[in-house]
Amino acid sequence: MKKHTKKIIAPVIITVLLVLFLLGYAILATISIVGIIFAVTAVIGIALAIYTLIERIHEIKDGEEDDISKY
């Protein structure tokens, strides 16, 4: 395994679990008409989770494993 691959595994697993949870939430929410608003919220959450994962992978590859050290 490459040096950065081990550090990328945890964010990917957490993002996959969050996306699965939000997808289940969105599917269950669409049962009612009011639930469509909740489903849209879940989709926005999924998009934000994926964006955050991509940003975190870029940070890890650039050598910024510890974000707190910047502050």
SSE arrangement, N to C: HH
Quaternary form? single chain
Outline the low-pLDDT stretches.
none
Number of strands: 0
Structural class of the helix and strand makeup? mainly alpha
Please tell me what the overall shape is.
elongated
Instruction: Provide a count of the helices.
Output: 2
Fraction in beta strands? under 5%
User: What is the helix content?
Assistant: over 70%
| Overall pLDDT metric | 80
Rg: 16 Å
Please provide a brief summary of the model.
With 71 residues, this protein is mainly α. The protein has 2 helices and no strands. Helix 1 runs antiparallel to helix 2.
Characterise the protein shown here.
With 71 residues, the protein is mostly helical. The protein is 73% helix and 0% strand. It has 2 helices and no strands. It has helices spanning 5-29, 35-61. Helix 1 runs antiparallel to helix 2 (35-61). The longest helix has 27 residues, at 35-61. 4% of the residues are buried.
Topology:
Blueprint: H1 5-29, H2 35-61
Helix pairs in contact: 1-2
Short key terms for the protein model shown above:
mainly alpha; 2 helices; elongated
